[in-house]
Amino acid sequence: MGPLSSERRRELSDSVAANRAEKKRQREELEASLAANGDYSIDDGQRNGDDASNPNGGKVAAAAIAVIAVGYLVAKGAQVAKPHVEKWWRETARPKIVETKKNVMTKFKGVFGEQGEEADPKTTEKTAN
User: Fold this and answer.
1) pLDDT for the residue numbered 129
2) Nearest to 26 by CA among 46, 57, 52, 55
3) Residue 110 · residue 124 · CB < 8 Å
4) Rounded distance between C-alpha atoms, residue 39 and residue 115, angstroms
5) How far is it, in rounded angstroms, from Cα 60 to Cα 66?
C-alpha cells in the first residue's frame, strides 16, 4: 500500500474524532441516567450475574466467535494450500533460483573462485587484462 493522501488522512482523522465524540456522548448519557436513578456506579453485569444488562456482552461474544472462526479457516486454508505450495516450490521456484544462482556465479567466475571464495587479486588482474 502506498502513502495515504492528505484528503484520506483528514477523512480518517475526522471519522476517528466523530467516533470518540459519540462514545463520550454515550458515556455521559449513561452517567447522567445513573445519577438520576441514584446509582453512581456503572453496572458491568457482574454484580448480580445478569449479563443481559451489559450492552457489550453480545459484541464480546461475537468477537470471540469471529476470532475462533478465522483461526479455524486459516488453519484449514494452510492444510489445503500446503500441497500446492510444495508443488510450486519443486516445479517453479526452486529451479528458477538454481538457474539464477548459476547465472550469477558464471558472471562472477573471475572475481570468485570455484568454492565461492574471493579469488586471488594477482590472478584476477592477469585475467582481467
Assistant:
1) 45
2) 55
3) yes
4) 81
5) 10
Residue 118 near residue 112 (C-beta atoms within 8 A): yes
Q: Collapse the DSSP code of 112 into the 3-class scheme (helix H, G, I; strand E, B; otherwise coil) and give the result.
A: strand
| Max mean pLDDT range (4-8, 48-52, 61-65) | 61-65
Which DSSP string corresponds to 55-81? TTHHHHHHHHHHHHHHHHHHHHHHHHH
Q: Per-residue confidence at 25, pLDDT binned at 50, 70, 90?
A: very high
**In terms of pTM, does the model score above 0.70?**
no
Cell 539464477 -> residue: 100
Rounded Cα gap, residues 20 and 13, in angstroms? 11
Residues recorded for the chain: 129
Neighbour-count burial of 87, counting CB atoms closer than 10 A to its CB (0-12 exposed, 13-18 middle, 19+ buried)? exposed
- Longest CA–CA span in the chain (Å) reads 97
DSSP assignment, residue 5? P
Distance between CA 76 and CA 1 in Å, rounded? 27
